[in-house]
Structure formats: C-alpha cells, structure tokens
Amino acid sequence: MTPTPAEIPPTLLRAVGVGRSYAGRAVLKNVSFELLAGERLALTGPSGSGKTTLLNCLGGVDRPDIGRIELGGVALETLDGDALAAVRRRRLGTIFQFFHLLPTLTAAENVELPLQLNGVPTEERMERVRYLLERVQVSHRADARPSELSGGEMQRVAIARALAHRPELLLADEPTGNLDSRNGDNILRLLQELSDETGTALVLVTHSPDAAAICHRELLLRDGEIVGETVRLRP
Description:
By secondary structure, the protein is an alpha/beta fold. The chain has seven helices and ten strands. The chain has helices at residues 51-58, 81-91, 107-117, 122-135, 151-163, 181-198, 209-212, and strands at 11-22, 25-36, 40-44, 66-71, 74-75, 92-95, 169-173, 201-205, 217-222, 225-231. The protein has a six-stranded mixed beta sheet. A four-stranded antiparallel beta sheet has the order 2-1-4-5, with helices on one face. β4 and β5 form a beta hairpin. The longest helix is centred in the last third of the chain and has 18 residues, at 181-198. The relative contact order is 0.19. The mean pLDDT is 92.
C-alpha cells in the first residue's frame, strides 16, 4: 500500500552535490541523498571509500569544498563557527568506535555533560541521566569511571550521552567495531530500539552487514561516490 503524503516523515537531512578533497585527492565526489526524520541509514563500502569523511561533513566537523548539506532546512555551510557549534551541541549526537568518554568523569557525569552545555536545569539533568542509564542497563555503574567499565558498558554510556540532549540526528562511526560479537549485537539492538522509541534519525558508518541490517536504507560508497542503494524498510 502506497503511503499518503501525510504519512511520510519530513526530510531532516539533505546532501546535494557534496565534494571534498585532501591534498589534491578527491575523497567525496558529487554525493547527494536525503534522510527522513526518524530514518536509519547505513553508509557502507570498503576502507577509503569516503564514509567517515561524509559523516564528518554531515556533522559539521568538516566542511565540504563544494555542495550543500542542510539539517532541518538550515544550510550548514552558511553558519559561522559559533552557530555551527550550537547546531552540533543541540541537534546532533555522536557515537564513536572508541567511545570517547572523558576519563576523569563518572558514567553519570559523562551523560550529564551535554545537558550542562545546553543549560538544562539541574533537576531535569538528574532525571534524564537516571532514566537513560536505566534504559541502557548500566545504572548500577553510574559512579564508575571509564577505566572501570567494560567495552560494552562504555558504549552503552556513550549511547546514553549521545541521546541525553534529545538530538534529531545520531551519527555513529563503527559503533560496534571495538566490541566482541555478543556485545556488538546487544549495542545494535539497543540503537534500533532507542531510535524507534525516540524518533531520532541515525546515520551509521559500518563494515558490518549485521549493523547495516538495522537500518531502513543502505548507501554503498566506493571511491567517494554512491554506487548503490538498498531499501529495506520504511521509517
């Protein structure tokens, strides 16, 4: 049954003709796609195909040489450094392969940090941190520092931190790449569940077919270009 226009989620992210070069070598070439609100998209392809560079451009960490990236209708290339930082702080969440938790903070303090940066009141911060640590099943490790956590526990804390400020879009770079298969499967299941529960869109860079399988769509990159697309589900 064909969905009516009212049933189709709005476009959250749009990349149009994005290109990026380093030291004279084109890493991204004329990349264009759209992401709907609440949609999960996998970026796959061999090493060196431009996946992480594209993710960095989508997150405003890097700027494309040509083309346009819009988040919620805002063209990122038109923003100065402060405005871009504000967009990243309020509208984006990021999950890394190596967790990137601050080693001097406890699990709870790591999750609380983006809320502090966004000026969320103390009582609301405490409630969100408590809920998220419970939801990712590490509330019993709230006072532990990263050095005291397992890899799976660190990634669960990192997911809670990425969702704490209720972003519209999660960007994940090989989030299971540093985990064993059991922990990796658990993290993928958690990401899928939380994306569905919160309506948060996800762009996932991965080499893993299992990770790509939780996504509604998959874009295959090779030599900086989109060379294939697989559609699995509707968001």
